[in-house]
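Lab manual, section 2.4: Encoding a predicted structure.

Procedure: take the sequence of the chain (325 residues), apply the prediction step described in section 2.3, and record the output as structure tokens. A sample record is shown.
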Amino acid sequence: MRFHFPRFTLGILRVAALVALLPSFAVAQSSAIPGWLGRHVGTGQGQIAPVVLERARALHREKRARGEVSNPCYLAMDATRPSTVGTAPGERFYIICEDAKTFRAVSSGYGNGRKLRGHDFSNGRQCAQNFSNAEGSKLTMGGNYVTAEARTSFKGYYRQSGKRTPFQRTFLLFDGEGETENAREREIGGHPAVFLKWQCRYRSPDSPFADEAGYVPYGELVNYTGGRSNGCTTWSQSASQDILDLTEKNPTTLYIYPESGDIEAVAKAVAAGTDPARAGLYWNASCLKQIGAPKFWPKQSLQPVIDAWRDSLPEQPPLDLPICR
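Recorded output:
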């Protein structure tokens, strides 16, 4: 038996079918990388690798859809890139605001690791080879993060323009999930790549930062922009301020590449004599040539090593800085 529909009914059915397709079509359209952003995708200096952008965008879209973040901008980092390109700091941290159509690549540090007896998981100055989520490893851990609160702490005084000036550094905490869920335990976050190398202490009882005896530490300000860190993400002072302003009372997502699965897949390809790129895997080519193969140290196996090393250390007396002369 055949059914014959009036023409207007067929028209309504066609419209209904199109409407049913609209949600999936809209999702496909909205998830497509816009042309202005596509121009920044690549493996060259100042560009973001396709897989890093893809995962960073997916994380941000997911968190916004769930109402976990409302910030229109998001952050990403590619820890496989070199610290320097020529004489300039390598650009491997990204600030992306799709609504405003802005893309910015800046320098960032990665974890320097440790060299313990029988376990060397340290990283060189130019390229990161070792990664871990073990507490105390001082290594970078790739994966999903959301920026949290910022904390500012006093570090000491240093000389600026001929006078002693207090140095305070702001630390932006990260909350992780999955393999990065212990970010708080590891005290992982972002801050300016500057620290105060203490030299002595001087008496300044009127200082709001003085200790019970009226002393404050004094030292030299050291800038390590683009270098290594204790596992945190570190930026130049100007970039740090922009990121802090962007995330103040308005959290956003941060995706750091590579994750453990990426590291192990690239290492497996290298061991088999396969070019990771030909296998559809990504690692910065110049750094891969330098390190040979990356390695992931899971906290389940590395944490006992670090804990045993800590337990073996002799008890140290409290640090007592000399009086400034």
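Check your result against the sample. The radius of gyration is 25 Å.
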